[in-house]
Amino acid sequence: MKVTIFGSGYVGLVTGACFADAGNDVVCVDINAERVEQLQRGEVPIYEPGLDDMVSFNHDEGRLRFTTDPAEGVRHGLFQFIAVGTPADEDGSADLQHVLSVARTIGDHMDDYRVVVGKSTVPVGTADRVRAAVAEQLAARGERIEFDVVSNPEFLKEGAAIEDFVKPERIIVGTDNPRTGELMKALYAPFNRSHDRLITMDIRSAELTKYASNAMLATKISFMNELSNMAERLGADVEQIRLGMGSDPRIGYHFIYPGCGYGGSCFPKDVQALTRTGHDYGYRPELLEAVESVNRRQKQVLAERIREHFGGDLGGRTFALWGLAFKPNTDDMREAPSRVIMEALWEAGAAVQAYDPEAMDEAERIYGRRDDLQLCDNLYDAVEDADALVVCTEWQVFRSPDFERIRDALRYPVVFDGRNVYPPAMMEALGFTYYGMGRGESI
Ligand code: UGA
Question: Theoretical Cys-Cys bridge with 222: which of 258, 270, 294, 389, CB 3.0 to 4.6 Å?
Fold first, then answer.
């Protein structure tokens, strides 16, 4: 099948590569000429396990092409996927200018029936606006060409995006035309084999399903973080509580890990946008507001703990910080707790020696070179002569380091563990003063 994907960012690239890998003929369109040139050379500008190989293999086979020419893209695909960014506006609502501009481009150039598929996470009602934008451009050209609009939100996790795409838990298709539903089913057939995971529904419900899923997951995390703060004060251990709670299948073990807050390009933005939508429609979503504010507060907890430990004054101190990315297996630092913690340490007059397995370039891009940030080559350089170690992301490589080497390199053997990576008893036995999250027993 012929597929066009607008937007060669994270979602667009994964979608394009996976459709091409299943044998489809895919054209990816992006307005960023530099990015398109990079991709044409087989270089993938984002870090995602397995994506490099998939892109270059399918590019070499001629099934995956990249262009800056939108007209070429519109002429190519029966399916026109819109996978461009929807950054948050100042008031938290999603900025739709890129989505609507692609819709207008499709209306400008289409010469035959097209299925316009929304992949970007967009507020309820956006598909109607996309439909109107395409129709308006067609009308301006005096053309009466048929097209359909579909909402097909993506549920990819960074670091596991390819796996999520090729073995999805669900494929949501929002459409008002059963025939289009069948076309989508045929396109997704290679990823929908063992049993039917494709759920067809009306367009608005599909748009809302995406926000509802992310908001539910964010709620689980904020709930656990709230509980973690209480456990700490009550002298209980949230990690034991997590195991006790998770054993109830109605609750489940997934996504109930407390920590130093959720980050990334999705949860913070989507919870805010859904809250905003509620307000726009005359409803105050109090639970969502709390999910957001608990998360904001949680990102401050580690910095406050560090300040307290050092008697309120961090001036002139240096901290080793492990884990800059918002979670393991990505170089993405958007809304990462590490940033809030690092900025709070700087604000208090301290310096940071940071290490992350993938996000070092990203940290340099965001913060540039500054005296109070040293980007280190490995985890041990980061702890050298630092006053304490702060762990912000649970990368696998942080789990079993040479603790004796770390203890000897640090000025004080103190570890602030924002992800409960280490067992408190073991850390204490190794001679560390250890602070976890919500581990009242150990404090
Ligand atoms: C999230 C969703 O998990 C995907 O299903 C969705 O498709 C995606 O957003 C999206 O909307 O595009 P992602 O942002 O890649 O995926 O990351 P997650 O693995 O969900 O982690 C989000 C944050 O929650 C991380 O900061 C992580 O550390 C934190 N987290 C996660 C916790 O603090 N506790 C947990 O138990 C789980």
Answer: 294
Q: By the 8 A CB rule, do 71 and 54 touch?
A: no
Kindly list the catalytic residues: 266
Distance CA 335, CA 46 (A): 17
pLDDT digits (tens, 9 = 90+) for 222-264: 999 999 999 999 999 999 999 999 999 999 999 999 999 999 9
The ligand 1 atom at the shortest distance from the C-alpha of residue 263 is 26
Amino acid in position 166? V
Quote the tokens at residue 420.
């409960």
48 sits in the region (left: phi over 0; alpha: psi -120 to 50; else beta) called beta
Burial tier of 58 (Cβ tally within 10 Å: 0-12, 13-18, 19+) = buried
Which residue spans of the chain are classified as CATH 3.40.50.720?
2-201, 216-442
Q: What is the pTM of this model?
A: 0.93
User: Which atom from ligand 1 is nearest to the alpha carbon of 221?
Assistant: 34
Say which CATH topology domain 2-201 has. Answer: Rossmann fold (3.40.50)
Instruction: Give the Cβ contact number of residue 263 at 10 Å.
Output: 25
Q: What tokens were used for 215?
A: 């908001």
What is the full DSSP assignment across 199-211? Answer: EEE-HHHHHHHHH
16 lines ligand 1 (CB under 6 A): no
The continuous run of DSSP H or E covering 393 comes out as none
ipTM: 0.95
- What is the CATH class of 216-442? alpha beta
